[in-house]
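User: For my dataset I need records formatted as: sequence, then structure tokens, nothing else. Please produce one.
Assistant:
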Amino acid sequence: MEDKDSDKFVTIPIIVSEVIFLLLPLFVLIILDLTSENFISVITSRDLGLVSIVCWGQGLVKTVSGLIKSSDTKNWMNVSLYVSIVIALGITPSLIFYSKIHINRYVDNSIYWVQGISFILSFIHYCTVGLFANDLLNSNNT
């Protein structure tokens, strides 16, 4: 019989492996930009916004999947609230920033800063909520 504390450490490598593949396009961009000595283009890249959108979406899907699978989840209103918050405050702004930069490449620098903040928030959301969701997904597998 396995110890429950050892199960908690199983989810960390899963999240790390998912994050590696999530950030792989950015690693490629960084390597390409370092060879061209234009590192600032990573920060002003449209791809940062795209990764942010994917982070928000994957975190949302993983969490909802975990909550649906968990037998402890009885309150659908909380799940609905979570989905609404992530869509309204995460995915939608990220889509707007991505579209704004994609349509007009020469935008104000503040848009790039906001896109960077959105990326950081989406990454934090994905890592923290992803650990929670993996625990929910693994809790009923025993």
